[in-house]
C-alpha cells in the first residue's frame, strides 16, 4: 500500500537520543505508527514487522497502531531507520523531505535491524564503551 | 538544582524530562579514541588534536558541521577555522529551521522575547509543533499554564489553538484543534490570510481538511485577541512547501498586526542552535551554510548546506562538533561520511562515532564547562559550570587546533 | 615600550585650542606625551591633516537588533564582501556589515571609538559578545529604559531617587554606558500594538506620560552624575508634523550640568518634519535649530539621510511597523519583555522621491543652521539614514555650497518649495568638521576626562592622519578632494599603535569597553529591594541573579565610577 511518510520527535526519542546505543533508542526509532484501519486492511497487528520502501531503498520497522495518525500516512520517529530511506535531495533548500516521503508499506517476516547493524551496513564501526 | 556524588551528577531537580536526561546522560568517553581497522584504540589529546589538524590541512574542501550543542565561544573559533581552511561551515539548523530562516530572509520576522508571551499573550497558536513532547516546559513557563502580569489566571485567561496533521499530545490540551491534511498547511494559512483581509466570501467549504466555519472561528479568535503568540515547528519547515509554509505563516502574523498585536517565533530545538546562527551571522553575515572556498563568505542554501555537500559527495573531510549527523541525515550523506576522514568532538559516543576516524571527548557546557547559549528568542544566557572535571572544553580543543592552523597562514 | 613620533602633523584639536598648527606629536605607551626617546618609530605626516580619532556618538553596530538586520538580509551581505587578507578577517555587508566589516571600515576612516545607540539590558550579553569582535575601536553601549516597568512605576510614584537607583543598578549590571530613551512610553504601548502620540499622551496601564518619563530620567541621570546625559530618540519619529513633539521635548529640559548638555537628542532629522500628511510634508529645521540655538543644554546629532539602499533599525517598534506599511518590504520586530521593543526594515532612499529629497535637505539644514558646531554632531544614525561609509560625502556637503547645489539639481524638483537649504550660504570649515566628528562627541559623551577627543599630552593616543593638506585644498570648490581625503586615512593610530594604514588593518586590536558604575549606598541598592527582586523574578523569564553580565564578557574594559547623591 502507498503511504506518505512523516517523521518527527517523540518524547521517548528525545530522552533516548543522548544514548543512541541503547535498546530504547533503537526500538523507539524503528516504530512505524499507522492508523488501525490501515493496519487492518494490510493484515498487520501491533508490533509485527512491516517493510517500508522508498525510491532510496527499504527498511524493516515494527508497526504500531495510533488513532492520531491520519489514514494514508505513517509516522516514524526521527532516527537512523527513517533516514535510511529518505532521499538526500533538498530541492535547493538544504532540507530533505523529512515529512513528505512517498513510500510503500507491506507486511514482512524479516526482522528489524539494530542501530549498529544499520551503521555497519553503511561502513561504520561500532564503539562499545 | 543538581546533586553531585563522586564527581558524577546523580540527580537533577527542576529540569524538564529532556534536560534531566542531559544531566544524567550515558557514560562519557574517557579520552580520545582512534579507529584501527575494525576496532578502536585510545590516544592522547595531543595526538588527537594533531591528527585532526593534519586531516583538515590535507583536505581541499572540509566540512565543519554541528555546533548547536556547544557554547558560543567555541562556535566563534569554528568560524575562524572554516575561514582559514576555506571550508564549508554549517550547523544543524539546515535540518531543522533552515527553511524558517529562508522565509525570514524573504519577509522578515515579527517576534518577541518569551516574557512578552508570558505576560501578555491571551491567544497562543502552536502550528506544526508539539511542545509537550519536544519542549516540555514551554506550556508551563510561558503559555497555557503560566501566570503572567496581565494574565493572573493562567489557564482561564488564555486560549490555545493547535494546528497539525495529527492530533498530538499538545493537540489534546488545546481549546481548539485544527486537523490539516498532510501538505495542506500552505493552503490553510492562505485561507486565514484571506479572511483576515476581509475576504470571507471567497473561502470554499473546506480547505485542506479544515471546515470553513472553523477557519472563520479561528480568524475571529485572532482578531478579538489582545496579543497573539504564534509558534511553529518542523511541521511547517520539513513538509511540502518548506520555507513557503513559514513565509505564509509570517505574512499572516504581519497582516494580523494591522488589527491587533501578533508575534511569531520558531520552536528551535538544540539548546544553542540559535547561538550558532547568531555567531555565524555577526562573523560572516549568514546564519548557516557558509562556504569560504572563494575566500569570501558565500551563502547558498541548497548548495552550501551540509546535506547537499555530503549527498553530492563533495567534501573530502568532515569535522563534526557537538551533533550527530549519522543519526539525523539521509543515508546517502552518512555513506559519504563513512568514506572520508571524519573527526567527532563530542562528550558521548553517538551514531556518528561509528563513522569517525577519531573522537575527542569534551566537557559539557552547563555541566563541566561554562559558556554562552542563546535561547530560542535570542536572549543570551550564561551557562554555569556545576562540576569540575579534567575534560577540556570545546573552546580549548578548537582553540588549540585554530592556533596550529594559523601557523600555516602567517599574516 | 611602544613609542611613535609623528612629525610635521597639521593638527586641529578643538578641545586643546589648536587650529591647523604644524607640529610633532609624541606617543608613548598608548598616550600622548611631551617627548619620546630616540628609538621611537617616526611617522612623517607631511603636513597632512591630523585629528583626534573619530568618535561616533550614535551608531548601530552590535547586538540583537543589528545582528537580526544581517540575519534577514543576505542581499545586503552580498553587497560588500572582502576575503581574509593579512590580519584582516573576511567581511560581508554594506549597510549592516559584519562586526569585522564595521570595525575595519570605521578604522580606515579614522574612527577609534563607537557608541552603540541602543542596547536592551536583557540582551546586553549579546552586544558585549559582538564588541569583542569589533576589535579596532573602544566601545560603549547606551541602555534602553524607554519601556522599563520598574522605571515607569517609579515615575508614577514621582520617586526620582528610586528611578535613579534602578538606572544605577541596571547600568552596572549590564555594563552599559548611558541612558537611552527610544520613543519613551511608546515601546511599552507597542506591547499591545499601540503607540503614544505626544509627550502628554498616557502609556496604557502604567498611567505615566512620555514627558514625565523624560523629566524623571533627566533628573535621575544628573543625580547619578553619569558622564553622558540622557540620550533621547523623541516620540513620533518619522511622522509629518512631529517637530512640535520635538520642540515640546526640548522645552522640558532644564540646564543641570556645567560640563556638558543635559539632553542629547539623536537623529533629529527624523524629528524635524512639518505638514499634516505626506502631501504637505516639509522641513521644520529652522524652528528646531532656533530652539537649539537658544538652549545650550541641548546637543543634537543630524541623522543625515543619503540616497541609496540601507537598512533601518531601531528600538522604536511601532515606528518600524508604520514604515513597513509604507514600504511593503520585509519587516522584523522584536519586543523585549519589561523593557523595550525594536524593529527592522530595509529601505531605499530615492532622489526622485519628494519625501526622501526633503529628508536629505533637512539633515543638512540642521547642521548648517545650528550656530554652534558643538551642538550638532555629524551622524547618519548608522545605518538608518545611510551607512557610516557615507560620512565623507556629508562632510563634503557641509563644506561646499557648490556641492550642495550640484546635488540639489538632481533631486525631486518640488523640494525647493519645502525646504530652506538652497538659501543657506554657510560652508563649514575644517575646525567645525573636527568638532562635529570627534571633539563634540567626546564632550557630549563626557569622555574628555578619560583622554578622548583631544591630542594634548595625557590624552589617549587615538589619532587619525588624513591625506589632506588643508592649505592646498579649497573645500568649497574642490569638494571631491575633501571626500576622498576623509574616506581613508594615511594612518589610524589607536592606543598608540598604528592600526590602519591606507585602509589596511594591521593589528588584531583588542580595545576597551567603557562602562559606568554609579556608587550607590546600600539603602538604594535595588539588589536588596524586596519588592524589586520579587517582581523581577516573577515577570522576567530569567532570574535576577542570572541577569547581570559577568566579567567574562568584558575583555579589556574601563569602568567609570561616579559619585552619586544616593
UniProtKB/TrEMBL annotation, chain A:
Protein name according to UniProt: Formylmethanofuran dehydrogenase (Tungsten) subunit d
GO MF annotations in UniProt: molybdopterin cofactor binding; oxidoreductase activity
Domain Molybdopterin dinucleotide-binding: 3-102
E.C. no: 1.2.99.5
Entry keyword annotation includes Ribonucleoprotein: no
Classification via Pfam families: Molydop_binding (PF01568)
Gene3D superfamilies documented for this protein: 2.40.40.20
InterPro entries: Asp_de-COase-like_dom_sf, MoPterin_dinucl-bd_dom
Keywords: Oxidoreductase
Amino acid at each position: 500500500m502507498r503511504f506518505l511518510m512523516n517523521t518527527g520527535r517523540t518524547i521517548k526519542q528525545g530522552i533516548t537520543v543522548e544514548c543512541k546505543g541503547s535498546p530504547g533508542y533503537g526500538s523507539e526509532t524503528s516504530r512505524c505508527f499507522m492508523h488501525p484501519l490501515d493496519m487492518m486492511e494490510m493484515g498487520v497487528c501491533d508490533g509485527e514487522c512491516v517493510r517500508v520502501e522508498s525510491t532510496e531503498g527499504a527498511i524493516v520497522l515494527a508497526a504500531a497502531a495510533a488513532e492520531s495518525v491520519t489514514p494514508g500516512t505513517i509516522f516514524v520517529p526521527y532516527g537512523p531507520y527513517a533516514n535510511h530511506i529518505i532521499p538526500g535531495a533538498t530541492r535547493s533548500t538544504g532540507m530533505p523531505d523529512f515529512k513528505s516521503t512517498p513510500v510503500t508499506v507491506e507486511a514482512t517476516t524479516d526482522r528489524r535491524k539494530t542501530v549498529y547493524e544499520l551503521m555497519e551496513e553503511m561502513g561504520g564501526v561500532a564503539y562499545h564503551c | 538544582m543538581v546533586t553531585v556524588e563522586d564527581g558524577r551528577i546523580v540527580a537533577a531537580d527542576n529540569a524538564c524530562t529532556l534536560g534531566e536526561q542531559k544531566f544524567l546522560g550515558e557514560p562519557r568517553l574517557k579520552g580520545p579514541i582512534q579507529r584501527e581497522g575494525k576496532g578502536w584504540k585510545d590516544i592522547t589529546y595531543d595526538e588527537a588534536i594533531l591528527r585532526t589538524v593534519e586531516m583538515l590541512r590535507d583536505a581541499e574542501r572540509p566540512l565543519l558541521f554541528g555546533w548547536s550543542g556547544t557554547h558560543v565561544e567555541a562556535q566563534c573559533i569554528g568560524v575562524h577555522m572554516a575561514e582559514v581552511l576555506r571550508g564549508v561551515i554549517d550547523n544543524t539548523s539546515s535540518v531543522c529551521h533552515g527553511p524558517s530562516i529562508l522565509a525570514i530572509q524573504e519577509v522578515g520576522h515579527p517576534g518577541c522575547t518569551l516574557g512578552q508571551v508570558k505576560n501578555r499573550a491571551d491567544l497562543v497558536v502552536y502550528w506544526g509543533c508539539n511542545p509537550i513532547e519536544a519542549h516540555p516546559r514551554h506550556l508551563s513557563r510561558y503559555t497555557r499554564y503560566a501566570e503572567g502580569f496581565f494574565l493572573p489566571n493562567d489557564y482561564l485567561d488564555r486560549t490555545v489553538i493547535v494546528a497539525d496533521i495529527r492530533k498530538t499530545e499538545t493537540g489534546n490540551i488545546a481549546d481548539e484543534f485544527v486537523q490539516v491534511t498532510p501538505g495542506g498547511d500552505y493552503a490553510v494559512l492562505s485561507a486565514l490570510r484571506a479572511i483576515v483581509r476581509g475576504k470571507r466570501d471567497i473561502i470554499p467549504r473546506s480547505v485542506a481538511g479544515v471546515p470553513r466555519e472553523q477557519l472563520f472561528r479561528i480568524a475571529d479568535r485572532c482578531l478579538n485577541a489582545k496579543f497573539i503568540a504564534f509558534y511553529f515547528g518542523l511541521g511547517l519547515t520539513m513538509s511540502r512547501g518548506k520555507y513557503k509554509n513559514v513565509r505564509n505563516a509570517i505574512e499572516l502574523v504581519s497582516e494580523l498586526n494591522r488589527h491587533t498585536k501578533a508575534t511569531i517565533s520558531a520552536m528551535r530545538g538544540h539548546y544553542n542552535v540559535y547561538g550558532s546562527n547568531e555567531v555565524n551571522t555577526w562573523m560572516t553575515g549568514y546564519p548557516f551554510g557558509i562556504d569560504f572556498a572563494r575566500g569570501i563568505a558565500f551563502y547558498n542554501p541548497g548548495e552550501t548546506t551540509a546535506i547537499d555537500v555530503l549527498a553530492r559527495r563533495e567534501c573530502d573531510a568532515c569535522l563534526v562538533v557537538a551533533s550527530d549527523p549519522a543519526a539525523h541525515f539521509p543515508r546517502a550523506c552518512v555513506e559519504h561520511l563513512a568514506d572520508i576522514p571524519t573527526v567527532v568532538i563530542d562528550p558521548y559516543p553517538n551514531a556518528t562515532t561509528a563513522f569517525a576516524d577519531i573522537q575527542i571527548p569534551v566537557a559539557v557546557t552547563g555541566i563541566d564547562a561554562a559558556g554562552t547559549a542563546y535561547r530560542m528568542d535570542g536572549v543570551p544566557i550564561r551557562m554555569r559550570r556545576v562540576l569540575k572535571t579534567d575534560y577540556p572544553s570545546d573552546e580549548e580543543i578548537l582553540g588549540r587546533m585554530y592556533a596550529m592552523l594559523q601557523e600555516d597562514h602567517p599574516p | 615600550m611602544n613609542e611613535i613620533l609623528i612629525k610635521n602633523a597639521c593638527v586641529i584639536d578643538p578641545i586643546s585650542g589648536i587650529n591647523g598648527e604644524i607640529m610633532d606629536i609624541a606617543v608613548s605607551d598608548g598616550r600622548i606625551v611631551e617627548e619620546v626617546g630616540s628609538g621611537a618609530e617616526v611617522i612623517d605626516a607631511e603636513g597632512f591633516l591630523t585629528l583626534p580619532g573619530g568618535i561616533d556618538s550614535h551608531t548601530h553596530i552590535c547586538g540583537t537588533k543589528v545582528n537580526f538586520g544581517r540575519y534577514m538580509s543576505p542581499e545586503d551581505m552580498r553587497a560588500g564582501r572582502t576575503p581574509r587578507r593579512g590580519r584582516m578577517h573576511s567581511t560581508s555587508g554594506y549597510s549592516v556589515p559584519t562586526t569585522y566589516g564595521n570595525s575595519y571600515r570605521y578604522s580606515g576612516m579614522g574612527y577609534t571609538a563607537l557608541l552603540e545607540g541602543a542596547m536592551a539590558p536583557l540582551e546586553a550579553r549579546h552586544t558585549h559578545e559582538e564588541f569583542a569582535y569589533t576589535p579596532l575601536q573602544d566601545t560603549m553601549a547606551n541602555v534602553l529604559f524607554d519601556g522599563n516597568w520598574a522605571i515607569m512605576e517609579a515615575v508614577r510614584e514621582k520617586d526620582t531617587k528610586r528611578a535613579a537607583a534602578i538606572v544605577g543598578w541596571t547600568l552596572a549590571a549590564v555594563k552599559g554606558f548611558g541612558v537611552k530613551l527610544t520613543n519613551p512610553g511608546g515601546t511599552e504601548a507597542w506591547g499591545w500594538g499601540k503607540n503614544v502620540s505626544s509627550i502628554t499622551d498616557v502609556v496604557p496601564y502604567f498611567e505615566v506620560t512620555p514627558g514625565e518619563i523624560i523629566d524623571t530620567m533627566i533628573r535621575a541621570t544628573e543625580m547619578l552624575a553619569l558622564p553622558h546625559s540622557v540620550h533621547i530618540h523623541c516620540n513620533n519619529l518619522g511622522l509629518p508634523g512631529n517637530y512640535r513633539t520635538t520642540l515640546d521635548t526640548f522645552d522640558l529640559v532644564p540646564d543641570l550640568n556645567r560640563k556638558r548638555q543635559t539632553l542629547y537628542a539623536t537623529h533629529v532629522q527624523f524629528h524635524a518634519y512639518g505638514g499634516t500628511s505626506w502631501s504637505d510634508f516639509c522641513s521644520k529645521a529652522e524652528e528646531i535649530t532656533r530652539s537649539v540655538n537658544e538652549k545650550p543644554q541641548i546637543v543634537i546629532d543630524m541623522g543625515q539621510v543619503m540616497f541609496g539602499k540601507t537598512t533601518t533599525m531601531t528600538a522604536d517598534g511601532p515606528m518600524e511597523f508604520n514604515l513597513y506599511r509604507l514600504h511593503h518590504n520585509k519587516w522584523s520586530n522584536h519586543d523585549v519583555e519589561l523593557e523595550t521593543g525594536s524593529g527592522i526594515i530595509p529601505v531605499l532612499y530615492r532622489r526622485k522621491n519628494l519625501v526622501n529629497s526633503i529628508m536629505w535637505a533637512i539633515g543638512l539644514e540642521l547642521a548648517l543652521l545650528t550656530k554652534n558646531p558643538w551642538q550638532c554632531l555629524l551622524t547618519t544614525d548608522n545605518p538608518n539614514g545611510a551607512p557610516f561609509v557615507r560620512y565623507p560625502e556629508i562632510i563634503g556637503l557641509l563644506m561646499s555650497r557648490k556641492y550642495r547645489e550640484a546635488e540639489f539639481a538632481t533631486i525631486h524638483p518640488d523640494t525647493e518649495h519645502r525646504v530652506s537649504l538652497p538659501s543657506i550660504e554657510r560652508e563649514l570649515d575644517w575646525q567645525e568638521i573636527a568638532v562635529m566628528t570627534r571633539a563634540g562627541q567626546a564632550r557630549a559623551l563626557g569622555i574628555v576626562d578619560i583622554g578622548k577627543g583631544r591630542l594634548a599630552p595625557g590624552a589617549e593616543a587615538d589619532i587619525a592622519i588624513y591625506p589632506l593638506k588643508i592649505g592646498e585644498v579649497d573645500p568649497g570648490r574642490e569638494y571631491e578632494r575633501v571626500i576622498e581625503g576623509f574616506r581613508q586615512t594615511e594612518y589610524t593610530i589607536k592606543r598608540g599603535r598604528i592600526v590602519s594604514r591606507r585602509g589596511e588593518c594591521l593589528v588584531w586590536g583588542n580595545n576597551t569597553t567603557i562602562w559606568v558604575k554609579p556608587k550607590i549606598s546600600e539603602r538604594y541598592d535595588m539588589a536588596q529591594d524586596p519588592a524589586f527582586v520579587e517582581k523581577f523574578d516573577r515577570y522576567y523569564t530569567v532570574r535576577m541573579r542570572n541577569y547581570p553580565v559577568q566579567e567574562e564578557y568584558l575583555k579589556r574594559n574601563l569602568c567609570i565610577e561616579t559619585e552619586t547623591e544616593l
